[in-house]
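Continuing the series of single-chain predictions for the mutant panel. This is the parent chain; the variants come on the following pages.
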Amino acid sequence: METDIDREVRAAREALFARFGNDLRALHDYLRELDAAGDWPVVNLGPRRPEGWVPPTAAPPAAKAG
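Parent structure:
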């Protein structure tokens, strides 16, 4: 079942692709340039740890022979 939103998104995608002569490489290059020129912040929150997670401790020292 196709909705109005589906048709609108497809039409926008086809128009953008046609703007670059249906050349996927040209569209890709344009999007990469647009991304590189952006001045928006990049957020990296790092990994999330499960609740109750405890970091591993250092390995115990090796037993001395003798």
